[in-house]
């Protein structure tokens, strides 16, 4: 992606999430090697790829759980985890040569940004010592978005939306995996995020529980929420994705609508991967 | 499937194609009729004949209760232990050496109770200050700053290495080393100055000494608790953008407390007993009072030691009861059902016993 393109795109229709030339490495191990990705508002992007291809790392870079070594991520035009340092006149200049002038944000500011990005983990990571209701209501209260009664009201309505209106008083460990993951989705929704990232949301579930979680995600997809989903459920990807991104060895190999990437993959690596998982 | 149920299995007359699908054929609908219709093929022949000797009409297996295995070894061991316990109790009660009348006299003497109050005071202050210090040191050890990590490590290393009695005696003589303490600019002018000898009363020396020592141990207990919290919890908390303080106070620390409680109570019990060392900085705690009364009334030394023993036992027991309820509180969510309280256990025990007696009577 050239620099002129990126500015025109952001002027025409601000991308919900823009990942620009992100590199991430641990020691000598290179995980991401120059990933560019644009997610438009309301779009459902599914990231596929073999294990170790950097899918999860890419998601974690988007909400700054991992800092990219090179490159940047922006949400609705706002940089994540960093800010541009220096003259105001530089604001319009794309940071292709200017990433050295990016300054790390304060921890508090990063946390505020994260609260606008929902994240659903493979292992749910619900807070086991809080009731289901408190799991969902905690974040809006703690971040100052809502007061407690309003947050609990919101939590109740979100929990009924994911079909768990009767479980508000239960503790997470008293629920099945599928129910826990649905609570985790409600928890992510409680902050009214601009985008929700799903990191293999059904990989830790028994096969018969996968459906209920996918149904909730599908409901979000059809209601116009911007979603980025890492998954191994190819059938589900075909159903909900507006765009499939195939990642291999830290690079995007190809991307496009499911009909192209899944049915007519251009790249050899994609074909090979799909022949193994389909 | 209209054939008699017993023959359906043995004859194999079911169509083979239908016999293969697994879910349907196995459930109780077939298994139970087989045992009702013909018990012999299932039970061994000699077992069946034995049963018929004692019991004219053998019950079906599904209606029988399994007789629990008898364990004679356990019964013998129980009897031996009971005899030993009885001997010890008898000895305690009857041996004139213990002088229980003198024990009763000393047990609630004001001089002893004053000492008990000192013990409680010193232990309570040191427990709270030690835990607070321990939390700070644990956070220091887990900090990303190498200086904070190193300082915390050195502190813990130092105070775990030096015997408590040495720390106490050192502090006792502290006013000789530093005549005054002052608050002000480091290496600069002072705003407030304290006279050390007036500030450092015996109780302050005792509390400071015990707290310094306690903090070093508490730090490791707290650190262990924090490390026991799953990394996913930290990630989830920061992915939700919860403020850093909230993450620690509401998400990580409450979960850590579940692991911290048993270890810290262990520390606390040790601390209560360590308070007996403050006697050496001329503070008359429970042990100190017993000791000084003992030298005044040498004939009563044994009952006096018993008085101290029983009071320490009571303190430890109270702490253990509190521990049970604190642990129960922090296990909410970590276990599917909370452990029963002793009262609930008693009720359940009585209920079980009654049910068992009724069952035995019915057989």
Automatic annotation (TrEMBL), chain A:
Keywords of this entry: Amino-acid transport, ATP-binding, Cell membrane, Membrane, Nucleotide-binding, Transport
SMART domains tied to this protein: AAA
GO cellular component: plasma membrane
UniProt-listed SUPFAM superfamilies: P-loop containing nucleoside triphosphate hydrolases (SSF52540)
Enzyme class per UniProt: translocase
Membrane topology: Peripheral membrane protein
Entry's localization field: Cell membrane
Pfam families found in the cross-reference section: ABC_tran (PF00005)
InterPro entries per record: AAA+_ATPase, ABC_ATPase_HisP-typ, ABC_transporter-like_ATP-bd, ABC_transporter-like_CS, MetN_ABC_transporter-like, P-loop_NTPase
Molecular function as annotated in GO: ATP binding; ATP hydrolysis activity; ATPase-coupled polar amino acid-transporter activity
Domain ABC transporter: 17-274
Keyword Glycoprotein annotated: no
Keyword Cytoplasm: no
Catalytic activities: a polar amino acid(out) + ATP + H2O = a polar amino acid(in) + ADP + phosphate + H(+)
CDD domains named in the record: ABC_HisP_GlnQ (cd03262)
Assigned EC number: 7.4.2.1
Protein family: Belongs to the ABC transporter superfamily.
Name of this protein: ABC-type polar-amino-acid transporter
Organism: Streptomyces himalayensis subsp. himalayensis
Automatic annotation (TrEMBL), chain B:
UniProt KW Secreted keyword: no
Positions with biased composition (Low complexity): 1-19
GO biological process terms held by the UniProt record: amino acid transport
Single GO MF annotation: transmembrane transporter activity
UniProt cross-references to SUPFAM superfamilies, sorted A to Z: MetI-like
UniProt GO cellular component terms: ATP-binding cassette (ABC) transporter complex
Keyword DNA damage tagged: no
Name listed for the protein in its UniProt record: Amino acid ABC transporter permease
Taxonomic source organism: Streptomyces himalayensis subsp. himalayensis
Lineage: Bacteria, Bacillati, Actinomycetota, Actinomycetes, Kitasatosporales
